[in-house]
Amino acid sequence: MRKIKTIFLALCLSIMASAQTALSDAIDDARFSVEAGTTINNGATPLWLAANKYGAVGIQNNNAWLRAAIFRPAEADSNYNWRIGYGFDLIGGTQLTRKWSGWIQQAFIDIELKKVRLSIGAKERRMELKDQELSSGSQTFGINARPIPQVRIEIPGYILFSRNLPWLSIKGHFGYGMMMDGSWQKYYLKNDQHYTLQALLHTKALYLKLGNEQHFPLSFETGLEMATIFGGKVKNAMNIEGYNFTMSHNLKSFLKAIYSGGSDPTDDKYANAEGNTLGSFLFSLRYQAPSWYIRGYMDHFFEDHSQLFVQYGWKDYLLGIEVGLPKNRIISKVVYEYIKTDYQSGPVYHDHTASIPDQISGMDNYYNHVIYQGWQNFGQAIGNPLFISPLYNNSRELYFTGNRFRAHHLGITSNPIKKLHLRVLYTHEKNWGTYNLPYLHGSKNLNSFLLEGSYKFDKEPLKEFCITAALGLDCGTQIGKNRGFQLKLSKIF
């Protein structure tokens, strides 16, 4: 018994010493960043001047912001089993109102033991299996809206599933969080619109990788991303003023959110899944040559079991191809995507009843929900921004009026000279509205263009400063004609 106690004490001291060393380094390796920016528009902010920036840039006419942050990635402790990372990011600006206001964009701490991480707080996270600069965005876990505070257990990078299977790797996460925009919804929406206070969020994802580029140039990745909004205090449910109730948020509800079980109070006798459940199946096939690569990928979105279990076929999807070219001064990388969301399991929906037992699970109504304000945070789509933000409508509603569309998207980057980086985006979208509220004249269209250049100075007195200038343009009947210029100055210390 004494020997066991001695071993246990030695183990505890070893862990404490390792953690103390990592904590000391965590203070020393912090990086600071500052940023100032402004957008000057004729109309609303053009789509690609605001989209896929984690909700940091406002949509209304003319806006500005100041930003200051301190960060330290957990990866900086690569020499230790225990790793500590953290971040605090504060923004002040005119993002959602005409008045100047401030908000905490990020506040998190990451504690990592070997390859497993506990992440607590709101953090800007990267998309999976898509290019961060050029893709139109992931349909489930995108980079378009403000980060949502969560507690997550995650494997952030691929690890071998087994030493006996060196060609199979896994990563993923499992977490719970809380939506923080309930009070803002109450302020923004018209009096009879439904909103939810203190709604909860469950997210999970698992990704598998087959292949090892060090031994063979071809690799395949696949993943499943899922999210459920549940719980909370529902106000004006079904847009009936005064129809209020509290959604279940006990232990059973937390468990049901994992497998999309339970029911909502509005379901009556014949229940659907509790809360707002959605997700994506992801696929990617990549060929890596010595100086270039090509990758094809697919993102299939689902809002209910009919698309999750292939009940009506996968007729909606995001298909993409990404090409990284050999080093040159003209084009560095090209991305093309085709996005189709107009099927949504068909135009008919009927829940089984005693008199008509047949179930027809159509009209999936992507990103919208009868109880919650859909897959959005502070008015911006959490997933792909081609589900145009309701804020563009100026209607004081948070309903995605155009979720049935087909779009072509092209992105190009270039590095013509040292320290200068160029980015070009162009999107054409044809939109039919929703099944419930189709557009009166058949369809609306959108053409959005972005030209952006970033230059990083390498000489004093501006060394390490980066200046970014961008020109954005929208035309068509979807969100009208918008022209804008954006200027940003930033530095990392």
Task: List the defining traits of the structure above.
493 residues; mainly beta; Porin; 18-stranded antiparallel β-barrel; 3-stranded antiparallel β-sheet; signal; Wzi_sf; Caps_assemb_Wzi; Capsule assembly Wzi family protein
Task: Describe what this molecule looks like in 3D.
This protein is mainly β. It has a single domain (127-150, 161-483), classed as Porin (Beta Barrel), CATH 2.40.160. It has helices at residues 2-28, 47-50, 182-188, 251-259, 305-308; strands at residues 31-42, 63-72, 82-93, 101-113, 116-122, 150-162, 165-178, 195-197, 200-210, 218-230, 233-235, 245-246, 276-288, 293-302, 317-324, 333-340, 349-350, 360-361, 376-377, 380-381, 405-414, 420-431, 444-456, 465-475, 482-492. The strands form 4 sheets. It has an 18-stranded antiparallel beta barrel. A 3-stranded antiparallel sheet has the order 8-11-12. A hairpin with a 5-residue loop joins strand 21 (405-414) and strand 22. The protein is globular, with a radius of gyration of 24 Å. The N and C termini lie far apart (53 Å). Mean pLDDT is 89; it is low at 268-272. It comes from Alloprevotella rava. Keywords: Signal. This is Capsule assembly Wzi family protein.
